[in-house]
Amino acid sequence: MNEHTSKKFDTELEGIRTRVLQMGGMVELQIVKAMEGLSDGDLLLIDQVIENDNRVNLLEIELDEACNQVIAKRQPTAVDLRMISTVQKTITDLERIGDEAKKIAKTAKQIHTAVSPFMPQIRLSHIADAVVDMLRTSLDAYARLDTISAAQVVRQDKEVDAEFKGIMRQLITYMMEDPRTISQAIELMFVAKSVERIGDHSKNIAEYVVYMVKGRDVRHTSLEEIEREATR
């Protein structure tokens, strides 16, 4: 590959990388707005989240196509191919995070249009803040090729899973003590599950960063192994 072609290739890769981070920022905002809509009952905000999901989907398709074009035209080396593969996996997880934000918004709409007085007093803001932080950290790790931060996200996911189980127990207690809360408690279970899944997808992105930098696929390995690999 001559110098001119090489520079053009680097520019293409940098453009893709920048757009992945833009997509990440977009889905992060989707989560924040969906949770705000759930908390405040702002139906306009909720509808905005549902409509904006199409923009996230479109960006995934555009980025996937850009990656395929690079592979077809440039015949990238093993390292660059790893980066492109990471991008394709990352945008799939970002699109799924967008889907979960849309689900939260749709559930929020059902909750606030039903206006039931029997709403379990469960705070989901803490777990939602935690997964937004996980997403932000994993994208930052992707931008800076920072495997230490990526491993931290995997550790955070364990805490989110524990908090999710605690929320489930609380909601089951509400339903047992007052059957009138069952309908709304089930809706909140769906929201909590979506938040927990956002954590899982953020963890996936962090694991892809370790693969991109270190060349080792750390999915389905222990936290300790991931931390060891990240610090090598």
TrEMBL record:
- State the protein's name: Phosphate-specific transport system accessory protein PhoU
Q: What is this protein's function?
A: Plays a role in the regulation of phosphate uptake.
Whether RNA-binding counts among this entry's keywords is no
Residue ranges annotated for the PhoU domain, each copy included: 21-107, 125-209
Species name: Zoogloea oleivorans
Q: Which gene encodes it?
A: phoU
Q: Which Gene3D superfamilies match?
A: Phosphate transport system protein phou homolog 2, domain 2
Keyword Plastid on entry: no
Q: Which UniProt keywords apply?
A: Cytoplasm, Phosphate transport, Transport
Query: What are the subcellular locations of this protein?
Result: Cytoplasm
